[in-house]
Amino acid sequence: MQTLNPDRLFPAEPTQRRIARDLYDSVKDMPIISPHGHVPIEWFATDYHFRNPTELFITPDHYVTRLMHAHGVELADLGVNQSDFSESQAREAFLTFGRCWRRYAGTPMRYWFEDSLERVFSITEPFGPDSAGRIYDQVNEMLASPEFSTRALVRRFNIESISTTDDPVDDLRLHDQVIADPDFGALLAPAFRPDRYLEPAAPEWASLVDALGRSAGVDASGYEGFHEAMRRRRRFFKEHGAVLSDHSHMDVSCERLADDEAARLFALAYAGSITAADAARLRAHLFNDQARLAQEDGLIMTLHPAVHRSYDQYGLETYGRDIGADIPARSEFTRALKPILNAYGNDSKFRLVLFTMDETVFSRSLAPLAGYYPSVFVGAPWWFLDQPEAMLRYFEDTVPICGFGKLSGFIDDTRALCSIPSRHDTNRRVTARYVSSLVADHRLSLDEGYEVMRGMIQTQPREVFRLNP
Amino acid sequence: MQTLNPDRLFPAEPTQRRIARDLYDSVKDMPIISPHGHVPIEWFATDYHFRNPTELFITPDHYVTRLMHAHGVELADLGVNQSDFSESQAREAFLTFGRCWRRYAGTPMRYWFEDSLERVFSITEPFGPDSAGRIYDQVNEMLASPEFSTRALVRRFNIESISTTDDPVDDLRLHDQVIADPDFGALLAPAFRPDRYLEPAAPEWASLVDALGRSAGVDASGYEGFHEAMRRRRRFFKEHGAVLSDHSHMDVSCERLADDEAARLFALAYAGSITAADAARLRAHLFNDQARLAQEDGLIMTLHPAVHRSYDQYGLETYGRDIGADIPARSEFTRALKPILNAYGNDSKFRLVLFTMDETVFSRSLAPLAGYYPSVFVGAPWWFLDQPEAMLRYFEDTVPICGFGKLSGFIDDTRALCSIPSRHDTNRRVTARYVSSLVADHRLSLDEGYEVMRGMIQTQPREVFRLNP
Amino acid sequence: MQTLNPDRLFPAEPTQRRIARDLYDSVKDMPIISPHGHVPIEWFATDYHFRNPTELFITPDHYVTRLMHAHGVELADLGVNQSDFSESQAREAFLTFGRCWRRYAGTPMRYWFEDSLERVFSITEPFGPDSAGRIYDQVNEMLASPEFSTRALVRRFNIESISTTDDPVDDLRLHDQVIADPDFGALLAPAFRPDRYLEPAAPEWASLVDALGRSAGVDASGYEGFHEAMRRRRRFFKEHGAVLSDHSHMDVSCERLADDEAARLFALAYAGSITAADAARLRAHLFNDQARLAQEDGLIMTLHPAVHRSYDQYGLETYGRDIGADIPARSEFTRALKPILNAYGNDSKFRLVLFTMDETVFSRSLAPLAGYYPSVFVGAPWWFLDQPEAMLRYFEDTVPICGFGKLSGFIDDTRALCSIPSRHDTNRRVTARYVSSLVADHRLSLDEGYEVMRGMIQTQPREVFRLNP
């Protein structure tokens, strides 16, 4: 038997550890604010019950599956993209996870899993090859009870607000249903994710444009109509609770075209005869349009560019997207975002939250931009960087340049429901660790440290994302 | 009441903290050596009295103003570029600073300001929204006394040498006057900053060339004359105490052209009909010429390239340059500097000090270059990086590769006079912190630690910049 | 007198230090596994006796010589590339080293040298300008004894396996001789280093191709023959104990050409009339072929691209290659390696170990790739990064993303024989330091820490490089 150490993730030095513990204690029970995530709306709408521990912890979480794949496990054996994955296969996948467990030492996936096992399922037996079967059975039994339905977990996790990520043509009917239901405790927000509609080089683009037009009740087959359709769908999302639009292209170029040039390229693209270079120019213009619309409607833009999506062709063909085969790329924000920032950067209604997996831009680009422009905030460490070491580097790279007040606050960005409290708790512990270093070397008083903690965990995310509980 | 903790910025672990304290104590009272800065020569020449605390601490310091701007304060309300900023407006700006104070938590601007308040003005009341008015009044009263004139502060700050940054056509009359005055305690050096004269694409370039020619007494309208004018103005600066030339282009390309090609492009540029691409080639050549001249006259070259200057067009038009809207860019030194380094890199008379705000080049480029070439030194962390976290990263990135002996020593690079002792003290504390880590893990003896400290604070900057007190 | 502190390189905080010490103690006596290095095979074959301490410690070690050069010492005076370097010159070079000694504070060269002096030569007098002569004489005397021959040192250093780096046309006769000799205690492996044969733009390329063909007994003057020659030489190396091929081009582009296009460009290159652009395309294809062959024959590919080799033209002409004038370049792996990874990345027989001196790619590229692909491992910090600070950054950048199990284990990469145990010991101490941080903040139990240590020092390098002792 082991139990989670109450001082986990705190610094080793005793004086600083005491400070970190006090700082953490002051925020540890605050409700969870989650402005961006990927939990499927269907789970909330149906109060979904997970069928087994593998469906809860392994199959949908590419953080977990990619590392077993890296040690030679086939994704099929973990249930990825398997329409018919039996109970015995699920149990076998869990045993495989147990056998691979030592490979997770030092990773956040290990930390979150252990944390969830104890805090959600009260299991304190160490996980590993010997215990995986027993733990599977225990969790499996608990999952069947009403206390472990999706909504019960949302309540238990003390979630104040949560967001899904949605297609622009989504009718948001399920969102309306959940929002209207007093049984669902949290503030729910859809998020507007138009990426696919802004990539005119993709073969399916014209049909996406048509679908967008249909959903907006407008003929979108020309540039003007498309723009109007976007305007309407953004407003529709906003009326249904959205606070942000979410964007992830390879780069954030946003040079505008002349109006007639935009219309000309749009027509070429719609006809399927645009060149790659012109498609890139049109995409930059359409992305710029999103900023223009954001300045009108007040949806916050969150950007997390520069990923080689579905890098592994075999994986894509066999298992589809989002299997952990996305690899970050070098990113450039400053030069690329100049058209948008020069147009709207000083406008307090406009707001841009910049995320990255390229750590080199924190001190060189993002913090300097956020430290000048009222509209710019530096997003929390993203995806591969969502772990204690990278969080500490992030604070050290940004805070001295733009202060805590220009950071976004934590983003969990996950579909792994059970990991949400663990991820937020990790962030609270690591934030306390960083702030304790400023208190320990006498740059902040302890009282100021408490204020910074409250800001980072509660005030800041509410303000940055305009979430009013 | 609070007072500055004597152990501020030291590591938390008690044994290491004691070592850091001892190391710091051994250098804390050494005179300040400031080989590069931006205090206006007029202040020294006239023994300027600051009119109020806002003029001292806020308006001229874009480190301070940009962060308030990032939280929605108009720069006009802080006095930036306001020809007629009244006493009551100044007081209001200081109150605004007080209201924004909590936004500075974790930044060096906060640290320097608190440090200055106590060490220069003996104010120990915590600054903030409630105390800003009282503190304004106290500082204001003190500023009126002779003890707080510019020269009195220079004496009190124990400044051994200080530098201004000057235009090549400056007649250095004010410098001569200050140097000749026994009342001015420090060694004063102008610095040769020819950037504008090396950018042939700029619309004002031809008239700058004419002015340069006039100041040198030579017709500079052709390439040969221009080169001779540069040679003369550099010598003039050297004769008037300059030890370095200072350069900040977007990149450090320095490929030479054939002589006749240089002359041809120069003529095109002077006629205002050069293309952007050719202007870039000519600039590289003219920049190479600076190195050639440096090898003749022995002025040290300091380089800090790769900044998007005046990124915000609105800010530039409304408030001018240097308002905190400069954003660092990715930088590349190794490939770009090859022509200069292959020509003069092994020459002990030639000297190049390389600064950056792109931290990725410390371990990949600058330390390896400095660890091979006798002429190359790695400059101190620059501008946005002038803060404890980045200083520590800088030491960790460079020292293992090129040793302490190829670092430049600290550069304050500021026009904020009162922050000079605070910045140097920060550097001494953080240097002690880094060296204490080497002593604590038994890589250096304490005696060697003392020697390294003396080197970094005193011997090294004197030697690198050839400053003989 | 001083002696090496048993706690050197451990963290300062006492609790964490105790953990680090325990972790280190558990691996400190394990045999050395060295999958990649540069000790000349002649030394092993002849049981070479070093003529003097300068030949042992200074002349062949460009880590040591470059820093003296950076402080103005001519490489000739250190014996670099001097065919006739007398005993008195050698002694003088050692005294120069003593005078420069303080310049090495904070560098790994200092650490390794002190460590070697005490652990190999039992010298505890501090090295420096005053003691250099005495120490020279003591070491000199010892070197003459049989205990200090190359093979005696290999035995004493407890080396389990060691590798040389060899030209593809090497007949490996000396390797065979050493392997057959029961007197040589370690497993010896040659390594296949084909770089020069894959650069068709080089003037000597056609003659290299001829030599390769001769050694393979095949006409290599056409593409098919060349490919067959490569296949045979790789098999020859494998049959003689090689486990890996080693590659260091400026970039790792590997786009394949159509077969006839490859043949056409090969013919042009062989005739000496290929353009630079086509040579780059051909090189990418030939490099891709190495991966194709690796997938057949199972030699592991180790890659360490992106270095400006022999940056200093004067140094190259005067002293030749490998004098410490190689400067790292920015590197890009993800986009460049896509053709190879999409072809063989999921194949468990294929294996790629990626090294870099560009630290920005650890968290952005290498760890994400290794965290997905079974074939990819992240190589140990390379060359300039082979020091405690960079090692710690490496662990912090990679482990949270890909876990310990996708790291290569330590690589000493050196020709400085006496530094081998010091380098491995440094790695063991720093690995213990990193793992102790995970134990101290309760992310790993101490027992798991021991398991990780054993993995990193022993199991992992054996498995990754398929070395079976």
Structure description:
- Chain A folds into two domains: 49-148, uronate isomerase, domain 2, chain A (Orthogonal Bundle); 156-464, Metal-dependent hydrolases (TIM Barrel).
- In chain A, 50% of the residues lie in helices and 6% in strands.
- Chain A is built from 19 helices and nine strands.
- In chain A, the strands form three sheets. In chain A, strands 4-5-8-9 form a four-stranded parallel beta sheet, covered by helices on one side.
- In chain A, helix 11 packs across helix 13 (276-297), helix 16 (360-370) packs parallel to helix 17 (388-402) and helix 17 (388-402) crosses helix 18 (419-440).
- The radius of gyration of chain A is 23 Å and the shape is globular.
- The two termini of chain A are 40 Å apart.
- Chains in contact: A-B, A-C, B-C.
- Chains A and B meet through helix 15, helix 16, helix 17, helix 18 and helix 19 of A and helix 4, helix 6, helix 14, strand 7 and helix 17 of B.
- Chains A, B, C: Belongs to the metallo-dependent hydrolases superfamily. Uronate isomerase family.
- Chains A, B, C: Its EC number is 5.3.1.12.
Discrete helix count of chain A: 19
Fraction of residues of chain A in helices? 40-55%
Supply the number of structural domains of chain A.
Answer: 2
Largest interface: A-B, 47 and 50 residues
Topology order of chain A in helix (H) and strand (E) letters: HEHHHHHHHEHEHHEHHEEHEHEHEHHH
Chain-averaged pLDDT of chain A: 97
Output the CATH homologous superfamily of the largest domain in chain A. Metal-dependent hydrolases
How large a portion of the residues of chain A is in β-strands, by DSSP E? 5-15%
Described by strand count, sense and barrel closure, the largest sheet of chain A is: 4 strands, parallel
Query: In which order are the strands of the major sheet of chain A placed?
Result: 4-5-8-9
Number of strands of chain A: 9
Poorly predicted parts of chain A: none
What's the level 1 CATH class of the largest domain in chain A? Alpha Beta
The CATH architecture of the largest domain in chain A would be Alpha-Beta Barrel
Structural class of chain A: alpha/beta
The CATH topology name of the largest domain in chain A reads: TIM Barrel
CA distance, first residue to last residue of chain A:
40 Å
Shape of chain A: globular
**Assembly annotation:** homotrimer
Radius of gyration of chain A: 23 Å
